[in-house]
């Protein structure tokens, strides 16, 4: 899905040189993804090997958005992690965190496996003049999801 997003973005003359997609990890599809990047000569997408949690925070901090296009995700803890760095999320509606954590004022939810919907949200997010508020709201929203609060709610 991110490969196709990168292909479409490179054709968009307004943002062609302004967007870089970074995929982080060593999942089972990493070789396939790397081959697709080379095959399509995509210069707007980079593949970075697995990173420790300590190093991931730098990527979250430097990113404008986290995109989580999972077909299925029980929760999607990376959304919590990125929001704790003030990075808004664009997540599929198949992520458990979508309806609880990601709201209109701190990120976006797209329909699972719907590349057109992801693309339109991405374009919308790129032109969002309220981006600063998305960042602030992400930080505020994620404060409601802490280990301390979880333990407290379980004990209650």
Question: Could you give a short description of this structure?
Answer:
With 156 residues, this protein is an alpha/beta fold. Helix content is 47%, strand content 12%.
> Mind telling me the CATH superfamily name of the largest domain?
Glycogen Phosphorylase B
The number of helices is 8
* Series of secondary-structure elements, N-terminal to C-terminal: HEHEHEHEHEHHH
Q: What is the helix fraction of residues, given as a range?
A: 40-55%
Principal-axes shape call: globular
* Total individual domains: 2
Strand order of the largest sheet: 3-4-5
CATH-defined architecture of the largest domain: 3-Layer(aba) Sandwich
CATH-defined topology of the largest domain? Rossmann fold
CATH classification, class level of the largest domain: Alpha Beta
The proportion of strand residues reads: 5-15%
Query: Could you give the distance between the termini?
Result: 41 Å
């Amino acid at each position: 899905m991110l490969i196709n997003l990168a292909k479409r973005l490179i054709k968009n003359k307004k943002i062609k040189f302004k967007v870089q997609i970074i995929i982080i990890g060593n999942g089972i599809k990493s070789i396939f993804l790397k081959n697709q990047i080379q095959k399509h000569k995509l210069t707007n997408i980079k593949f970075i090997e697995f990173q420790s949690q300590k190093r991931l925070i730098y990527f979250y901090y430097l990113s404008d958005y986290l995109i989580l296009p999972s077909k299925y995700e029980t929760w999607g803890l990376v959304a919590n992690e990125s929001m704790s760095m003030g990075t808004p999320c664009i997540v599929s509606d198949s992520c458990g965190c979508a309806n609880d954590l990601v709201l209109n004022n701190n990120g976006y939810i797209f329909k699972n496996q719907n590349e057109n919907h992801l693309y339109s949200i991405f374009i919308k997010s790129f032109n969002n003049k309220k981006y600063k508020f998305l960042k602030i709201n992400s930080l505020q929203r994620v404060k409601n999801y802490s280990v301390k609060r979880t333990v407290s709610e379980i004990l209650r």
